[in-house]
């Protein structure tokens, strides 16, 4: 029975990633901007039912940095980018949520960067900063969600930016995370390739509860969840290929499965271009842990959880 249950778990883990549940705590927008800078993400600290107290855009000719202040359930401030520019701050009232974001991008010193940002709330208030360009993207939170954090790439400026939407309501039965959308052709190809991998893994599981399987590099980037919220983009011809809205993120997240217990973990900041070499599942009556091995550009063994 344990082997059958484990095969079912592996099949779900590798294949069933395209459905959006109605009770997801966190959803990701697509990203806007360019591929430069260093990856960042607020995902690990974002929770349902946050009270966002302010948002600040630091900007001059372009966007230098952003900050999002959270007053509860844990007081914290998410800050990204550099310290230049002038602060443009919107303080939120009681029951007010940030529900939209607009970004403009362009070239600076040969790199694509965010030049302008604007945030809007359910109360009709807004804040903006920077210089508008012809390359524009706007996004709106799904119903019942608010802006609760960011992910993207930064340095002295904001190079790439996406929104992390979190449920306004704190009552959620089965926490899950939904990633940005991918095109349907890529998703279907990924599922076919992953189905083959699942067959190999299920055979190995019957032989030994601690299984390591070598995985050959695949051309697919993996399937992803459906789109989170709505987004529109327009771009000038000179910048149209520098910041594609659907492919700017170096990582994509599937829906998650299981319950709300344990300690949160995430490998979201895994480096693009890694070659996956092995996948190990440690299991008895249930799954105790797993390890994903990779090499290049930075060798790593990712151990999400050894004792559930």
From TrEMBL:
<feature type="compositionally biased region" description="Polar residues">
    <location>
        <begin position="191"/>
        <end position="215"/>
    </location>
</feature>
<protein>
    <recommendedName>
        <fullName>Jacalin-type lectin domain-containing protein</fullName>
    </recommendedName>
</protein>
<feature type="domain" description="Jacalin-type lectin">
    <location>
        <begin position="26"/>
        <end position="167"/>
    </location>
</feature>
<keyword id="KW-0732">Signal</keyword>
<feature type="compositionally biased region" description="Low complexity">
    <location>
        <begin position="216"/>
        <end position="251"/>
    </location>
</feature>
<feature type="region of interest" description="Disordered">
    <location>
        <begin position="171"/>
        <end position="266"/>
    </location>
</feature>
<feature type="signal peptide">
    <location>
        <begin position="1"/>
        <end position="22"/>
    </location>
</feature>
<dbReference type="InterPro" id="IPR036404">
    <property type="entry name" value="Jacalin-like_lectin_dom_sf"/>
</dbReference>
<dbReference type="InterPro" id="IPR001229">
    <property type="entry name" value="Jacalin-like_lectin_dom"/>
</dbReference>
<dbReference type="Pfam" id="PF01419">
    <property type="entry name" value="Jacalin"/>
</dbReference>
